[in-house]
Design goal:
The chain contains eight helices and eleven strands. With 237 residues, the chain is α/β, with parallel strands linked by helices. The longest helix has 17 residues, at 108-124. The protein is elongated and about 55 Å long.
């Protein structure tokens, strides 16, 4: 739990401070704070987080409006925080991809309890043996550990921005399969139509710079001419 990373997004600084104090008291040491959607986006570009406490009513954009973009940047558990209590608001929050919903005023311990519950649920899905863990992807030269959210390359932990991490995670889950740029955009970015043809190529290049011994001559993340890309992994005999 002490390694869980929590992002609090609320324009009421007193609420952010209160939640930070209670979360730290309950053992959460990695806490990020934002008071606007723009501030939250900057943090998500730089950091991996596991849980986001997201206020619905923010000065620059509502949490509901921002969630689709947030979902392209992180797989974090989203807990909406709002003073709006109608059934429609609650249903909207869940319909667009929220995981939980707490209304103001609230007891901060309720937030902690819900995050802990989500943490236990995710923990129960992991096996105790490293050899049995399905969320550990070992490609020899590099290794991706979903539990710790770490990319280890040639024995060293390498920083991996959220969207690069999501792309690598998807490819690790589907080794030796060819995906077109359109398919990657749909699966990783969660959008049906590519708005920029260069988006996938730029992220592929940035990923190669992290996992390849020689990014100019990729050994793992290869281009299949005319079809797309695939992450190569040797088949066990």
């Amino acid at each position: 739990m002490e390694n869980s990373r929590v992002l609090i997004v609320d324009d009421e600084k007193s609420i952010v401070k209160m939640l930070e104090m209670v979360l730290m008291k309950e053992g959460f040491n990695l806490i990020f704070k934002a008071h606007t959607i723009n501030e939250a986006m900057v943090i998500l570009e730089q950091e991996q987080v596991d849980y986001i406490v997201l206020d619905v009513m923010l000065p620059d954009q509502s949490g509901f409006e921002a969630l689709p973009k947030i979902k392209t940047m992180t797989n974090a558990h989203i807990l909406f925080l709002t003073a709006r209590t109608s059934d429609l608001d609650v249903l909207t929050g869940f319909a667009i991809g929220g995981d939980d919903y707490v209304t103001k005023p609230f007891n901060p311990l309720e937030i902690v309890a819900r995050i802990k519950a989500a943490n236990r649920r995710s923990g129960n899905q992991l096996t105790t043996s490293s050899s049995e863990r399905k969320n550990l992807y070992d490609f020899g030269f590099f290794m991706l550990d979903e539990m710790t959210k770490e990319l280890n390359v040639n024995g060293e932990v390498v920083s991996c921005p959220p969207q690069i991490y999501r792309l690598l995670q998807f490819l690790c889950e589907n080794p030796n399969r060819v995906f077109s740029k359109e398919e990657l955009f749909e699966k990783v970015w969660g959008l049906d139509t590519m708005v920029d043809d260069n988006t996938v190529m730029v992220h592929i290049r940035r990923l190669r710079e992290r996992i390849e011994p020689d990014p100019s001559n990729p050994r793992f993340l290869v281009t299949v001419r005319g079809l797309g890309y695939k992450l190569m992994k040797e088949q066990k005999k």
